[in-house]
Write a structure and sequence with these properties.
- The protein is mostly beta strands.
- It folds into two domains: 149 residues, Electron Transport, Fmn-binding Protein, Chain A (Pnp Oxidase, Chain A, Roll), CATH 2.30.110.10; 48 residues, Rubrerythrin, domain 2.
- The protein is built from three helices and twelve strands, in the order ββββαβαββββαβββ.
- Strand 1 and strand 2 form a beta hairpin.
- The chain is globular.
- 31% of the residues are buried.
- The structure holds fe (iii) ion.
């Protein structure tokens, strides 16, 4: 079995935003799709560790801002590499506006947003799958949507670390951070993007 077959999916990239009891937050996800068209329904899968997942569960509402190729790495760093538990991601974020449902959406580096209300939640262990009815949506620009492959090739900074020749290294597939060593500890967390050991790939230099 070649697990790299999973890399052939053409995922998009999104900022998922929600709010509950006056607390707003947002995170990056790559798992948004339309699932029916009459009525319009979408599904998203969100890692349970994400604070925004809690807000979606509690409020039953979210916005999905679709990231375009004009998105800079800063958007990914801001919404993907820090937790809403520790930081108020909207405290001084300039490129956002509230939609009719009262939630934020992202106005720069995006080409559309969709407002939705959760209809079903499915517990998948590591993730929650939310199936939601679309309440509203707007096109924001004609820039092409950013795929996960586009992020990997064009947006993610090239690694600044130079591993020594002949060494085995583990590279974070999300941000490019390099860990030198034969074995990566199972509980290792990427110091840059906070993703777990399962997001690292073994490489021989
Ligand atoms: Fe990382």
């Amino acid at each position: 079995m070649d697990k790299k077959a999973m890399y052939k999916f053409s995922y998009g990239l999104f900022v998922l935003t929600s709010a509950f009891e006056g607390k707003d937050s947002g995170c990056i996800i790559n798992t948004g799709i339309q699932v029916t068209s009459d009525p319009n329904r979408i599904s998203i899968a969100v890692n349970k560790a994400n604070f925004t997942r809690e807000l979606v569960e509690k409020s039953g509402r979210f916005n999905l801002s679709i990231l375009s190729e004009s998105a800079g790495f800063e958007v990914f760093r801001h919404f993907g590499f820090q937790s809403g538990r520790d930081a108020d991601k909207f405290a001084a974020y300039p490129d956002c506006r509230r939609s009719a449902n009262g939630l934020y959406y992202i106005t720069a580096g995006t080409n559309a947003y969709i407002s939705a209300t959760v209809e079903q939640s499915v517990d998948l262990g590591s993730h929650m799958l939310f199936i939601a009815i679309v309440d509203d949506m707007e096109v924001l620009s004609q820039d092409p949507s950013a795929t996960y492959a586009y992020y990997q090739n064009e947006i993610k900074p090239k690694p600044v670390q130079q591993p020594s020749a002949g060494k085995t290294v583990w590279q974070c597939t999300v941000c490019g951070y390099i860990y030198e060593g034969e074995e990566l500890p199972a509980d290792f967390v990427c110091p840059l993007c906070k993703h777990p050991a399962s997001d690292f790939e073994k490489k021989s230099i």
